[in-house]
Design a protein that fits this description.
Blueprint (H helix, E strand, L loop, with lengths): L5 H9 L4 H8 L6 H9 L3 H5 L4 H7 L4 H13 L3 H13 L6 H13 L2 H14 L10 H23 L3 H14 L4 H13 L3 H14 L4 H13 L3 H14 L4 H14 L1
Helix pairs in contact: 2-3, 3-6, 5-6, 6-7, 7-8, 8-9, 9-10, 10-11, 10-12, 11-12, 12-13, 13-14, 14-15, 14-16, 15-16
Length: 265
């Protein structure tokens, strides 16, 4: 017979304390997933990171989607949103397919300042589960908050288009001050540096951002444009293909990919 998964071994080892974890995996009524997930998220530190705890098993079975998911829940509860995003994305990559991961991913990405990813997760959530039971916290409320935070970047780009560099500088500086770890804000800051002449600083920042956020379409697109300008059309094409995989609906990526492909034909 097949060997038990890391999650199954973990739950079995917990005995009576494993009830919420077993429920998280086995409940068939969608609305009941949330109480189990919430209990897991609020597990005490010993259960989370002690010997034989969630993190211990997660490290021993790094490809187990449930252990990555549960670790993400615990990290999210503790305000470590960037790490939670990484865990939820890993859980998905290793086969976690239930729609509620998208909800937790959207929330965590929003708080981590990865607003593009949060928006994608919300869009997919609405497409996959249009009649889903309402999770704790309104989806529409999260969508509104997401748009409010992204508005500063939209305002910055409008100011740049109008060549109002003083206003653009003030807007992006305020955003960087408020959300210093946001890849979306840092990407906009790189755009400002590029447009105002500090190309070396912009390239350095974009390369760091791309390494840390390998599926951020806007960052990959901006770096692709620089590669293209430098004559590295192959490198630019690779980045644009990666950006397309990250977000097939990003207008700038679609336009640049079409133009570059035509040039190379």
């Amino acid at each position: 017979c097949a060997a038990a998964s890391g999650a199954a071994r973990f739950v079995e080892g917990l005995g009576d304390f494993g009830t919420p974890f077993a429920a998280s995996r086995a409940i068939s009524t969608d609305a009941l997933y949330f109480p189990a997930d919430e209990e897991i998220a609020r597990a005490d530190d010993l259960l989370w990171e002690g010997a034989g705890g969630i993190r211990s098993y997660r490290n021993h079975y790094p490809k187990d989607p449930w252990l990555r998911f549960w670790n993400g829940l615990a990290l999210r509860e503790r305000g470590r949103f960037g790490e939670a995003v990484s865990e939820f994305r890993a859980a998905r990559g290793f086969g976690f397919s239930h729609w509620r991961l998208l909800w937790y991913l959207a929330q965590s990405a929003h708080e981590a300042g990865h607003w593009q990813l949060a928006g994608r997760a919300l869009r997919e959530l609405r497409e996959r589960a249009p009649d889903l039971p309402e999770p704790p916290g309104s989806i529409e409320r999260l969508g509104s908050a997401l748009e409010e935070r992204r508005s500063s970047i939209g305002r910055f780009r409008e100011q740049m288009e109008k060549c109002d560099l003083a206003s653009a500088a003030a807007t992006i500086a305020e955003a960087v001050h408020e959300f210093p770890n946001s890849p979306d804000v840092q990407n906009a800051w790189a755009e400002y540096e590029l447009q105002t002449g500090d190309r070396e600083k912009a390239v350095e920042l974009l390369e760091k951002l791309a390494a840390a956020n390998p599926d951020h379409a806007e960052i990959l697109n901006n770096l692709a444009v620089i590669r293209w300008q430098d004559g590295d059309r192959g490198g630019a094409l690779t980045l644009l293909h990666e950006a397309t995989l990250a977000d097939p609906d990003e207008p700038a990526v679609k336009a640049n990919l079409a133009e570059l492909t035509a040039q190379m034909a």
